Amino acid sequence: MIRPQREHMSDSCCSLGGDGGCRDREAISGSFCGWGATTFSGPRFESSVSQKRRCSSATTATTRSGGATAATHLFRIAQEAVSNALRHGKPKHTVITLTQDRDGLNLVVTDDGEGFGKLARDHPGLGLRSMQQRARERSARAPGPRRARRAAGRRRGGDVTGVIHRPLPCAWHVTCTPVSRPARSVIRLGPVATSRVGRSPAATDAPPGTLRIGRAPMKTFVMKKIGEVGFMDKPEPADPEPSAAIVKTTHALVCTSDTHTVAGAIGERENLTLGHEAVGVVARLGREVRGVKEGDRVAVNAITPCFACDNCLRGFPSQCQGLLGGWKFANLKDGVFAEYFHVNAAEANLAPIPDSVPDEKAAYACDMMSTGFAGAENADIPIGGSVAVFAQGPVGLMATVGARLRGAGLLIAVETVPRRQELAKQYGADVVVDFKKQDPVEEIRRLTGGVGVDSAIESLGAESTFQACVRSTRPGGTISNVGYHGEGDVVGIPRQEWGVGMSDKTIRTALCPGGKERMGRLLRLLESGRVDPLPLTTHTFAFDDLGQAFEMMKTKADGVIKPLIRFH
Known about the structure:
seven-stranded mixed beta sheet
């Protein structure tokens, strides 16, 4: 239940007739806490003043009676107005304001759409009238020119405000008695948006009593259950906590990992928003976040650690708070295939994108580059050493790039798809072995004079390729696994080639290292032109066609390597 924020409460008291009354601020809080608990399907709050946008229509529900019953009717009227506005006017802003005046309580619903015109036509009995007409009526009742001038001053230029006069059944009679500063006699309900420097726009820019009612629906692409995906509307993320941020998505990439998830690799998920590779624009920031500002272009790694738990402090942030715990998107919380997404520990996880790097490139830093390069880093490739990279999908191709950057002297790629073979050579492979034409382990041994490679990188996530890595690595070598093993309960190790457990071979694993420091280094490689991932983008889709892109990634149809999703 959302209660009024006491620091915004007015110097007035509310008197309830009937069985009892309340005459202090705590009583006001208790009397009206139910208002904030009502759920609306309304758009996200935007301060009309701070955005310098002018609202063109509004509806005011005014009543002299109160209590829980009257409040319920007021909210029903407002809910109908907002619903009509969404259906007919498609407003970008809706502000709900609770005020009081000599007539009693006022619930003002203001938006920049045409939904209230529909409300007036459908319900002529509500008596919608313009602000000007309302001012004239008040002026006519006034004993002198002073009230007329005061009423006329409320016209607010050419804005049109409708006033609903409707008798409401009630259990109590409510009157608000000003104690001091009656113009500020308002009650603020619900959470308000907060800017980066800790200033509350709703408290300083919007009219007193502004209330955020609900959140706008946004389109998301979800895993409905194992084996089923589709679009669904969800509310926009709530205003971020002090250390978090909300990012408006501009571009995203579809990953094979998402198809594993839908197939049940990590268990059942219900209506989970998919996706973990995205860039966008900072829409809202928690007040404690530094280093970025609203409107900045940012890249967010697929792994978003807290950087404060034991595992993070021990140097394993991908295992944040538990096994694979840094993998939050499309696992522990909704992912990035949505118009907006939430980023925890934003100061540590938001990486500003250099001006010279387009979003289409920056998106590859979120997972493909970070994971592929981690495969090469963990492989402990000696300068001039030999390395085999098994599978040349997006991660494998970036592992090939990483191995070249790490100084490999002999780089062997294992792949059968012609286009991927071409890209492997383009990215630095000296030899490409087609596993459908020859045994890759035997060919690798032949190429290395019978001893095997210093390092082998598994980038597919299959038991067969993992075992091939163990078999093709020389004694004392390193097997680096970055593939997602989404099937089976165990991954077997070939006992003889493992030296029955005593070959001095090292097996290392990695989950896409995250954080803005690493992301900054990856973006620097893009900025300098040393790495160009764009050849991996084989297909581009609009967000509305993400289902087609997902199916293509699942079946690997049409030679797909990586589909790019444009949101705007």
